[in-house]
Amino acid sequence: MRWLKPKGSDAKKLTIDPPEPRAGRHGVAIAACVKNEVRYIEEWVRFHRAVGIRHFYIYDNGSTDDTCALLRSLLNEDTLTVIPWAGRMRDTATSTILNGQVIVFAHAILNFGCYYRWMAFIDVDEFLLPKQARTVEQALEAVGDFPNVSLPWHMFATSGHEAPPDGPLTLNYTQRGADPMTRKENVSNFKCIVDPCEVTEVSVHQFQTRAYGDLTANDAGQRFTRRARKSPEFYSNRFLQLNHYYTKSRQELMEKLGRGWAYDSSATKYRDKVLSIVKSIEEDMVEDRSMIDFIERYHIDLSR
After folding, report:
1. What is the number of alpha carbons within 13 Å of residue 116 lying toward its C-beta?
2. Of 4, 207, 219, 234, whose CB count within 10 A is highest?
3. For bias kind Basic and acidic residues, which ranges apply (predicted)?
């Protein structure tokens, strides 16, 4: 693999040669970076197992809590791979920071992608919610054989919680930004589910594939260019919705700002960005109970 020409302070794209598919490859895998996520990761795992995720590739960025031990108590070696992944890297010639998530995603595709029909690249505060089907894989039937799906963020803020409420995250937070396709800076973005054996370019929020270049599809299978997916016409959540529980409670938001983000080059820049995003979300919100409806419909158990 090789980096594309970096622009600005961060190198954010990698080109790769897609892996060769293994006979019998099937199912959906998730690749995610984690650090000290013990508070909520059990719910995230239980939910995604309930919607049919076959395997979790967890890249642990130096957790000092019980995140990894908890994961191993929930999942066996057939459903979990934990990869130690600590440290930041710079390009020697330019001192450009190499985006750690992009390296993780490329590593997951190249080393594990050959076993799966789909790989999803999300964070542990993001949930893949089928809207009509029971599983993520069934929901993806709407896109057919197309290899590159972009799901817009549905951004949930505090829902009025000053401190962490009792009970599951997904049942407590129902207020989200009204327009997932808003043009407000940093509020609108996508996460992707791709056929790993077709990917030729990797970044955090977008991919290119061998046969279709930068074309991507919404959850209904409608195809757009990378640029055109930002248009209102791209929006669909008919079959699959990506819920992003961005802040959780106000207390947890403050804790998040205190920790910073391992892959951001400036703590001050990160804090200002997060506060701006929260302000934008909370300026115009709607109630979204689709997650609660799904959990109740299928009697999903999110507790121990």
Report:
1. 28
2. 207
3. 7-20
pTM for the structure as a whole: 0.94
The 3-state secondary structure of the chain reads CEECCCECCEECCEECCCCCCCCCCCCEEEEEEECCCCCCHHHHHHHHHHCCEEEEEEEECCCCCCHHHHHHHHCCCCCEEEEECCCCEECCCCCCEECHHHHHHHHHHHHHHHHCCEEEECCCCEEEEECCCCCHHHHHHHHCCCCEEEEEEEEECCCCCCCCCCCCHHHHCCEEECCCCCCCCCCCCEEEEECHHHEEEECCCCEEECCCECCEECCCCCEECCCHHHCHHHCCCCCEEEEEECCCCHHHHHHHHHHCCCCCCCHHHHHHHHHHHHHHHHHCEEECCHHHHHHHHCCCCCCC
For residue 10, what are the CA distances in angstroms to 158, 192, 203?
A: 30, 20, 12
Domain residue spans of the chain: 2-297
Task: Report the alpha-carbon distance of residue 92 to residue 107 in Å, rounded.
Answer: 20
β 223-224/118-121 pair status: unpaired
Q: What amino acid occupies position 47?
A: F
Q: Which residues contact 222 (CB under 8 A, 6 or more apart)?
A: 234, 236
Amino acid at 297: R
Query: pLDDT tens-digit profile of 256-283?
Result: 888 776 555 577 888 888 999 999 999 9
Structure confidence at residue 3 (pLDDT): 52
Spatial separation of the C-alpha atoms in residues 113 and 17, rounded to whole Å: 12
pLDDT digits (tens, 9 = 90+) for 13-42: 999 999 999 999 999 999 999 999 999 999
What's the CATH class of domain 2-297?
alpha beta
A 10 A CB-CB count for 166 gives 5
